[in-house]
Specification:
By secondary structure, this protein is of the alpha+beta class. Helix content is 24%, strand content 26%. The protein has a domain of 62 residues: TusA-like domain (Translation Initiation Factor IF3, 2-Layer Sandwich), CATH 3.30.110.40. The chain is globular, with a radius of gyration of 12 Å. Belongs to the sulfur carrier protein TusA family.
């Protein structure tokens, strides 16, 4: 499992056991990785599941919002955390 700059797991849970995390810490990753990790995490969840994503890449705010719009996911909350960091709360959309 990949670690953040602080040594924490990017995704909590255990993917080998099929346990998906409900939060992603993508701070330190640059475009397009935050959007790609978010898309992958949403694809692993059931429709209606919530995912919290924290990222600090300046383009993440645009990329993740666009990902949600075209993927049919609902952005429930966007919170600026200071600097370029932002936290998204996303509800996964229905299956295509």
């Amino acid at each position: 499992m990949e670690k953040t700059a602080s040594g924490e797991d990017r995704m909590a849970g255990d993917p080998e056991k099929g346990v998906a995390a409900d939060a992603l810490d993508l701070r330190g990753l640059k475009c397009p990785l935050p959007a790609m990790w978010t898309e992958r995490a949403l694809a692993e969840r059931r429709p209606g599941a919530r995912l919290t994503v924290t990222a600090d890449d300046p383009l993440a705010r645009l990329d993740i919002a666009h990902l949600c719009a075209v993927g049919g996911h609902e952005t429930l909350e966007v919170e600026a955390l200071g600097g370029t960091a932002v936290r998204f709360v996303i509800r996964r959309g229905p299956d295509a």
